[in-house]
Write a structure and sequence with these properties.
It is built from 7 helices and 21 strands. The protein is α/β, with parallel strands linked by helices. It folds into 2 domains: about 130 residues, Acyl-CoA thioester hydrolase/BAAT N-terminal domain (Immunoglobulin-like); about 260 residues, Alpha/Beta hydrolase fold, catalytic domain (Rossmann fold, 3-Layer(aba) Sandwich), CATH 3.40.50. The strands form 4 sheets. The chain has an 8-stranded mixed β-sheet with strand order 12-13-15-14-16-17-18-19, sandwiched between helices. The two termini are about 40 Å apart. It comes from Periophthalmus magnuspinnatus. Belongs to the C/M/P thioester hydrolase family.
């Protein structure tokens, strides 16, 4: 019989299992220490999460105890020791999307005798602990925004401010996605998560958003009393990158301090609305594999005059982000503003580059915004390479924002 699960530490008879810290942000590393096992014993460290949508997520790694009967794991979702080749990975059947960022992810970490790969519920754990992983740090404020016909959520860091801000756009799946914004606020940036595809105004009018919707969101941030109006960035993923690049290059209202773009493209109608851009993506779906080179480029990236961080994976199977990044680089070189570009290219990395320690999802069921039908989408990426890219790109993205929004390489206290 297992000892009762306790926060951070549990033990049964002789085997001790501890996880530190037991409560932390999702992008913080945490150490797992197994003690009092037999020297040379083969052990499996396992984690389990029941998500909000009632899907089971699990990860495991195989280890061999040292001469003291101990195993020291430095991270739970990364590739570990080069001596004992072990891979601790999430088994991803779906995309993990945290809807309620005001509650933590509750992960049960267990240790088992032997090197197991399946059937964990049928085996007896030697010890287990419960840990919490948060997207919101203590003191972060979550403020729903509906004024000016916006569908958004503003996250403010702890303290009086004012703070630099990030306008945060997700991709073509629609809906209001808050977890990246709440995590950015936990690192000192005000962040506005913006729904631009499935918001109330789109449903009411039957029309998708045009440029002025994004400019309205920008002006909301610019005029907010707890935000430094001259220090606003824009961050886009996938379709959100297309919108970010477009606004950075063409908007006369938005004076962005910098822009961060993940897994996206500048392949779009220059003067198109959100609907026209999305329809253009759908029309060219047969050209969105990285081994195809039939793209037609309409967007002059030489117009971008703010620092730009591009993050792409070379195994992106959803959109030709790498090809687009190379073309953007050439355009900026030709325009004489290549000094504004920071380009991060990661091998074995797919489309869905998430905050660190998020599960790698190579393929998943995806609901098309246009038809609302479910289909399987291939995102790409290999577990180890993708996990490393998520950790490295997140760290460098925060450094990029600190440098250009704070004017210095500000260290986070979180």
């Amino acid at each position: 019989m297992i000892c009762p699960i306790r926060m951070g530490m549990s033990y049964e008879c002789s085997v001790l299992l501890s996880v530190h810290p037991s409560r932390a942000l999702v992008d913080e590393k945490f150490k797992v220490l197994v003690q009092n096992a037999s020297p040379g014993a083969e052990l499996t460290v396992h984690s389990h999460l029941l998500s909000e949508d009632k899907h089971n997520w699990e990860a495991f790694g195989h280890y061999i105890c040292d001469s003291t009967g101990s195993v020291n794991c430095k991270s739970l979702t990364m590739y570990f020791s080069p001596v004992q080749f072990s891979l601790f990975y999430w088994r991803a059947r779906h995309m993990l999307r945290k809807s309620n960022v005001e509650t933590p992810l509750e992960v049960t970490v267990s240790v088992y005798q032997g090197h197991l790969t399946e059937g964990f519920p049928e085996h007896r754990a030697l010890a287990a602990v419960l840990v919490e992983r948060w997207y919101m740090a203590p003191g972060v404020q979550r403020i729903p925004v509906t004024e000016h016909n916006l569908t958004a959520t503003l996250f403010l860091p702890p303290g009086p401010g004012p703070f630099p801000a990030v306008l945060d756009l997700w991709g073509g799946g629609g809906n209001l996605v808050e977890y990246r914004s709440s995590l950015l606020a936990s690192h000192g940036f005000a962040a506005l998560a913006l729904d631009y595809l499935t918001n109330d105004l789109t449903i009411t009018t039957g029309k998708m958003m045009k440029n002025d919707y994004f400019e309205t969101a920008y002006k909301f941030l610019e005029q907010h009393p707890q935000i430094v109006g001259s220090r606003i960035a824009m961050w886009g993923l996938s379709l959100g990158t297309a919108m970010t690049l477009k606004m950075a290059a063409y908007s006369k209202v938005m004076k962005l301090r910098c822009a961060v773009c993940y897994s996206g493209s500048h392949i779009q109608p220059v003067n198109g609305s959100t609907e026209e851009i999305l329809n253009n993506f759908l029309k060219n779906q047969d050209k969105t594999r990285i081994n195809e080179k039939q793209e037609v480029i309409w967007h002059d990236m030489g117009r971008v005059q703010c620092p730009l961080l591009l993050v792409v994976g070379q195994d992106d199977q959803n959109w030709p982000a790498f090809v687009s990044a190379m073309d953007i680089k050439k355009m900026m070189e030709k325009a004489g503003n290549i000094h504004l570009l920071t380009l991060l290219v990661y091998p074995d990395t797919g489309h869905l580059i998430e905050p660190p320690y998020s599960p790698h999802t190579r393929a998943s069921t995806f609901r098309s915004f246009e038809s609302r039908e479910l289909y399987t989408s291939l995102w790409g990426g290999q577990t180890v390479g993708h996990a490393r890219a998520q950790e490295d790109s997140w760290r460098k993205s925060l450094m990029f924002l600190r440098e250009h929004l704070y004017g210095r390489r500000k260290k986070s206290n979180l």
